Amino acid sequence: MNIVEDVKARGADAVREWAMRLDGVEPARAEPSGDLPEEAVLALADRVRRWHEVQRPADVRLEVEPGVELERRWIPLDSVGVYVPRGLVSTLVMCAVPAQVAGVRRLVVCTPPEGAGLVARAAELLGIDEVWAIGGPQAIGYLAYVERVDKIVGPGGPYVNDAKLAVARDVAIDLPAGPSEVVVVLGAGGDRRLAELEVAAQAEHGHEAVCRIVSTLEEAEAIAPEHLVLLGDAEALAPRVRNAGAVFVGEWSPVASGDLGTGANHVLPTGGWARRVGGLGLEAFLKPITVQRLTEEGLARVRPTVEALAALEGLPAHAEAVQR
After folding, report:
1. Where are the domains of the chain?
2. Which site among 12, 177, 214, 283 is 20 to 30 Å from 276 CA-CA?
3. Whose CA is closest to 95, among 293, 321, 268?
4. How far is the C-alpha of 96 from the C-alpha of 79, rounded, in Å?
């Protein structure tokens, strides 16, 4: 049976049954535990916070014509569900801190039972108290149909990503993120040892990780990887990149620095999605609202346009609605 559809139909009972079947434990709040390197977590959180603060889109207003004013305001989402893969405290930081910067009122975290205590410790450090020891597709169903959050963010394996796409009709999602990918362009003068270090680091994410070394930017662009490392002619190649989640330029810019240290977000598009979407940013936790204000003069100015197009499209009530 499809786990997500079952949770949608039966709610918390289905979550409980699937959690018992797949993880061997009932869903429960995760209790903080484990030895957390607090200084490192706070240092990363500070960098993530500072980088995402400068990403806030500007509210704009424009008087299109006398008496016709348009406004676009950015509003934080009310609630967000965060999926954190097993034990990945850094992913909690990458998802939760931008949401806090945006002003999201409520964060609900789900993470597999193994390692949940450590994630809960980090969440407590960040001021988040709703952490559930639930993993896999049942966690995505829980966030969508039991907690009913406005949006679900966070990376995962194929089953988690499939679940996110399945609930996307009912709740917003960020993007399919995972399994991990790295492509290294080893250009002229590039150090192959560094390229192999990048591949080895990414391979730690599991056997599903995509790890390749190529010789041309064209090969990398065709893959549109999550992480793109440029070695050799790095600065010359960097401005030409169009398809990548994140680009690491030169020998002193390892992917691990971005994953765990710089403050740039490591929730990034995989599976070729970098051709059409970017990684997680502050705007993922905001929504724009358009406000329109017309005066009597303004309505008189736009009325002929409305009437002409209403007649063209067979919408007589639209034409009548602009009469005052």
Report:
1. 3-175+281-287, 181-275
2. 214
3. 268
4. 11
Distance CA 40, CA 21 (A): 36
Q: Which fold has domain 181-275?
A: Rossmann fold (3.40.50)
Burial of 67 (0-12, 13-18, 19+ CB in 10 A): middle
Helix (H) or strand (E) holding 121: helix 116-126
pTM value is: 0.94
- Report the chain's C-alpha Rg in angstroms: 23
Is the predicted pLDDT of residue 206 greater than 90, yes or no? Answer: no
The answer to whether 202 and 228 have CB atoms below 8 angstroms apart is no
Q: Matching CATH topology for 3-175+281-287 and 181-275?
A: yes
Q: How far is CA 60 from CA 45, 208, 281, 290, in A?
A: 29, 44, 20, 10
Reported as type and span, the H/E element at residue 195 is helix 192-203
pLDDT tens, position by position, 106-122: 999 999 999 999 999 99
* CATH fourth-level superfamily of 3-175+281-287: Nitrogenase molybdenum iron protein domain (3.40.50.1980)
Residues with a catalytic annotation lie at 226-227
Mean pLDDT of 156-175: 95
Euclidean distance between CA atoms 138 and 19, whole angstroms = 7
Q: How far apart are alpha carbons 285 and 249 in whole angstroms?
A: 28
Question: Which pLDDT tens digit goes with each residue over 278-313?
Answer: 999 999 999 999 999 999 999 999 999 999 999 999
Compute the distance between CA of residue 307 and CA of residue 231 in angstroms, rounded to an integer.
60
- Total Cβ atoms within 10 A of residue 128: 21
